[in-house]
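INFO  loader      accepted 1 record
INFO  loader      residues=124
INFO  predictor   begin
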Amino acid sequence: QVRLVESGGGLVQPGESLRLSCAAYGFTFDDYAMSWFRQAPGKEPEGISYINWSGANTWYTDSVQGRFTISRDNSKSTLHLQLNSLKSEDTGMYYCARCAASAYTSCEVSADYWGQGTQVTVSS
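INFO  predictor   done
INFO  writer      dumping tokens
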């Protein structure tokens, strides 16, 4: 069955970096766009970055543009999110999710499978 497993979260100080990973199982990874969502304490999850099936096309929400980088390794069925220049407002649970189709725009329509999440806490 479809399974997504995130890793790489942790407690860091402002300005530091983290690299999140998401291992995918049970489906043909390069048939789908993939996404990262973030859920801040007390808030709904929000999409922060999407990537199309090949990795050629990406999208970032304004608050992370220029600091975060999404990438994928289709040979290893793995999705990554590089988080640089972290701020306290980046604190939250980070989820990877499979999008509805191969184009990253499909992530805005539907993300049908989600991982269990990995916690990122940015605090001095």
